[in-house]
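Thread title: Can someone regenerate the structure for this chain?

I was given the following input by a collaborator and told the matching structure tokens would be attached. They weren't. Posting the sequence so someone can regenerate them.
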Amino acid sequence: MTTFGATSTTDDVLEGVDLTGKTFLVTGTSAGLGVETTRALTTHGARVIGAVRDIAKARANLGAAGVDLDLVELREVDLASLASIRSFTDGVVADHPPLDVIIANAGIMGCPQGTTADGFETQFGTNHLGHFVLVNRLVPLLGDGGRIVVLSSAGHRFSDVDLDDPNFEHTPYDAWVSYGRAKTANVLFAVELDRRLRDRGIRATALHPGGILTELGRHLTDDTLNQLIAARGNRPNVFKSVPEGAATQVWAATVADADEIGGRFCEDCNVAPIVTDTDEVPGVMGYALDPDSARALWERSEELVGETFPH
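Best answer:
Regenerated them for you:
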């Protein structure tokens, strides 16, 4: 089996791979990693349903990247609105397109304190709860061998989840603590998804794409950027290219061994080791893979969104 690493690109991991006949649903295909992921998948014959807030922007950026738009179906959804997510998923399910892979790629980072349309803290509500509802509502479209790939981040090291105060109602807001909670929630979501679905032949995984300069940093101010630099400690400040950054999610979605990545955390096109020191890289903090915490987050998320997903 070919070995990949931190500098592998999407083209590297898909070399010689034919994805004709496969359908991927990818959130956030209007910029950055989402555009590159779509480009790589469609170049190898896949069809992509792109879930985006701005269809015109997505079409323009995908076209500029050389994507064959005949292989892409763009659908509008706002991950900060449960009504929008439910309308989107109802539409996808009504069309009954079988899905092979769902890639929860979209996200926001380090934004000022705010709330979603449903009153959830913005980062937790968008990055976790939005994908929690969207992915779960689309699970029935996945068949045996299906995969779910959830983008997290090394930012999960900033904080574990806080299920007693997910909306910072009793805790002073900190943009990076908020981001850390949301990114840890992304990992725990994948852990519990995998536990619930693996007997059906569906596997879920979470990952850190690496540090990449994309639109994800659009909310950064001088203060929050300085906080991010301080939080990184002695970790090297090395940025990947976008094709390198998107490689891990494409690898996990297509060529990685499903049994090896299921319920795990991936980084640099490999399963990451579990670490206890936030300065140790690569790696995932143990609390992000804790099965009891994953179950508790699932139940709390269902309470918050008012919808259950027994699977």
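The chain has one domain: 10-305.
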